[in-house]
Amino acid sequence: MASIPETSAASPLPVDNVDDTANSPNSSEAPDTPATPDHDADDADDHEAGDDDGDSAVDVPFRESLTSLRSSIMAYQHENGRTYHAMSAGNLQHHVLTLTIEGNHCLCPKNDGAKRVLDLGTGTGIWAMEYADAHPEAEVIGVDLSPVQPEFVPPNCYFEIDDLEKEWTWNRPFDFVFCRMMAGSFSDYGSIVQKAFAHLEPGGYFEAQDMGLPMGCDDGTLTKDSDFWTWMSLVMESLQKMGRPIAAQMWKVLMEEAGFEDVTETVYKWPTNRWPREPKYKELGQWSLANMDSALEPSTLAPLTRGLGWTHDEVMVLVSKARKQLRDPNIHAYWPMYFVHGRKPLNGTEPNPTSQIPSIDPGTPQPIKNALPHVLEPEPRRLKKTQAQ
Ligand SMILES: C[S@@+](CC[C@H](N)C(=O)[O-])C[C@H]1O[C@@H](n2cnc3c(N)ncnc32)[C@H](O)[C@@H]1O
């Protein structure tokens, strides 16, 4: 049975392009500790954020809630027949994504099986290995720039090190091409969609699963002048300047332009923390907080230092302010997660040209209209117990 390596090479934002400063000793000088499952960040989350107005939306200590999440992920992983040594960043993000779609691998019909699968930017390879385990009849190839995949893998799973922005050299067609959490990784998404089209057999499917920006908020608790929105706008601007925009909302347009048919887009809300009342979304929020909190610093450093010329210290101050609001359960923000798939027509041959991705203006915080669930209510605010009580 394969085990999954520990790696930090997973983030909803493109940390993989981070320069060395992200790992420099100075990065440990960040004023606060990331809220990964191994780093307790309960104070900011449970007290500081709520202290501003004297109450807190949720009163479960962060450490306790992560312990319970850790049990649930272990149960989930054993259920799926794989033993994990630790909850790495890659595993954590994979867990949130899988939880979002009720334990499925994808939303397209290839969830039920495929013959030959290509996983673009496979990272730790966790998705490719789970798919290969679930479908022994499928041949699954995971491709990545970095050799961070484990050595012992299911016999029908293979990893290749390659740059997907260069020419694809596979000779035999695939019937399923999968691409997850790659927003901000490519300079030309259109060319990736076209290559996927060209390397699929007629009737084959392409599915992309990605985070979009700007984030959404349905009730005005995230404001345009907040540190969190400022942080997000600067990250969007810098990635655009670097020619690697976060543009998950473009997958649908690009797939349609390239010639895919029945292109279907489903957008889910990933709450920024445990602010929702509904248990599934509270859990999703807890996981997405653990995931984003640890990704915040590395995913901000490279774009802002390289794209906008900020200094390391300036970035650290911004990250610290944004992190406080990321953890604040009184701010009901969410990350929109795009799941988009389309089918190559039975008479499909060559892809059509696709357009350039336009610059996306973050504008002001607002609801993302088609995101699910349409109504996501926050946990009712509770008054803090006073000493006298
Ligand atoms: C955020 S990770 C996503 C990992 C994986 N898809 C998942 O969802 O678990 C992005 C991955 O894309 C890889 N990557 C980025 N640009 C790439 C390229 N041009 N060719 C191949 N892999 C690339 C990175 O090395 C990294 O492992």
TrEMBL record:
<feature type="compositionally biased region" description="Polar residues">
    <location>
        <begin position="349"/>
        <end position="358"/>
    </location>
</feature>
<comment type="similarity">
    <text>Belongs to the methyltransferase superfamily. LaeA methyltransferase family.</text>
</comment>
<protein>
    <submittedName>
        <fullName>Tam domain methyltransferase</fullName>
    </submittedName>
</protein>
<feature type="compositionally biased region" description="Polar residues">
    <location>
        <begin position="1"/>
        <end position="10"/>
    </location>
</feature>
<dbReference type="GO" id="GO:0032259">
    <property type="term" value="P:methylation"/>
</dbReference>
<dbReference type="InterPro" id="IPR029063">
    <property type="entry name" value="SAM-dependent_MTases_sf"/>
</dbReference>
<dbReference type="Pfam" id="PF13489">
    <property type="entry name" value="Methyltransf_23"/>
</dbReference>
<keyword id="KW-0489">Methyltransferase</keyword>
<dbReference type="GO" id="GO:0008168">
    <property type="term" value="F:methyltransferase activity"/>
</dbReference>
<feature type="compositionally biased region" description="Acidic residues">
    <location>
        <begin position="40"/>
        <end position="56"/>
    </location>
</feature>
<keyword id="KW-0808">Transferase</keyword>
<feature type="region of interest" description="Disordered">
    <location>
        <begin position="1"/>
        <end position="59"/>
    </location>
</feature>
<feature type="region of interest" description="Disordered">
    <location>
        <begin position="346"/>
        <end position="389"/>
    </location>
</feature>
